[in-house]
Design a protein that fits this description.
By secondary structure, the chain is of the alpha/beta class. Helix content is about 55%, strand content about 15%. The protein has a seven-stranded parallel β-sheet, with helices on both faces. The protein is globular, with a radius of gyration of 20 Å.
């Protein structure tokens, strides 16, 4: 009899665990009317984020360097979103730290405040081995400015407004390259590791306040089928990865990020069945993870 009760208790525990992870408690209406800023929104995941927020009835400001591309994104947002919502853009180059203040000030001017800030912009570079040349060091400085320092500047400038929001949310688009040592992206990886360190510390500081003023959601993103990512892989000759892995659709990734931010999740993993296991194995079997990373990121010898 005791054995039967133990089996029933185990079954109930497993069922509760599955329900906790897989029941979708995301309420789309929770984003209606929210004031949202998305950086790096001229293409790729950022563009899709803007479209999802628009469909869900949010007011959206997008920013990037290319005005013409931003104009197209805003036009599409207006088609997707409800009448009366605000959809505007701010042209800004995140290599210039003063752009952070400008973007936040203009977003607040247009929207009257901020409820959700998604930091998504990046400076990319061709895949290549690190050799410590002056070119590599110059690239590292540029990457640190755009992929790290500007994130911190934007978060700092937005913090007072997120604190005023009834449900402030800061979403940081990081990368699997910020959790494991992916070959040929050493400088880029350094900036992504730093994002996890800074914003994890900031989250704990906020949680130490009596009432946490806003949430921080960190996003661990794997291979995504953006035009830029696929171009980089083809140019480098990563045929093993291209032939054996299906890149995640940018729209699907963006929806997972929107949902995770709305639910105030600590971290979002996309694609989950690739990024989450690798992050777990990183601590359990680090040599195995390194072998897998070297194999899938190997450069083809016939390129």
């Amino acid at each position: 009899m005791a054995h039967e009760w133990r089996k029933k208790l185990l079954a109930l525990s497993i069922g509760a665990f599955i329900a906790y992870w897989f029941i979708d408690d995301f309420d789309p209406d929770s984003l209606r009317g929210k004031r949202v800023l998305v950086t790096g929104a001229s293409t790729g995941i950022g563009e899709q984020l803007a479209y999802h927020y628009s469909r869900l009835g949010a007011n959206v400001i997008v920013t990037a360097r290319r005005q013409h591309a931003l104009q197209k994104v805003v036009e599409r947002c207006r088609e997707l979103g409800p009448q009366g919502a605000v959809y505007e853009y701010v042209v800004a180059d995140m290599a210039n730290m003063s752009s952070a203040d400008t973007v936040i000030q203009e977003s607040v001017r247009q929207l009257g405040g901020l409820d959700v800030v998604v930091l998504n912009h990046i400076l990319t570079h061709p895949l290549a081995a690190w050799n410590g040349s002056s070119h590599d060091l110059d690239l590292l400085r540029s990457l640190l400015d755009v992929n790290l320092r500007s994130y911190i500047h934007l978060a700092s400038a937005a913090s007072p407004w997120l604190r005023q929001s009834a449900s402030g949310s800061l979403i940081v688009m990081a990368s699997l390259a910020g959790k494991v040592g992916i070959p040929f992206v050493a400088a880029y990886s350094a900036t992504k590791f730093a994002l996890f360190g800074f914003f994890s510390s900031l989250r704990n500081e906020l949680l130490m306040e009596d009432t946490p003023p806003f949430s921080i959601t960190l996003c661990t993103i794997g291979l995504v089928g953006t035009q830029n990512s696929l171009h980089q892989l083809h140019s480098f000759g990563s045929k093993i990865m291209l032939n054996s892995m299906t890149p995640a659709d940018p729209a699907d990734v963006a929806l997972a990020v929107v949902r995770g931010g709305a639910l105030r999740q600590r971290e979002v993993f996309v694609p989950y069945l690739v990024t989450k296991p690798l992050c777990l194995l990183r601590d359990w079997c680090p040599e195995l993870v390194d072998i897998l990373l070297r194999y899938f990121n190997a450069q083809s010898t016939d390129t």
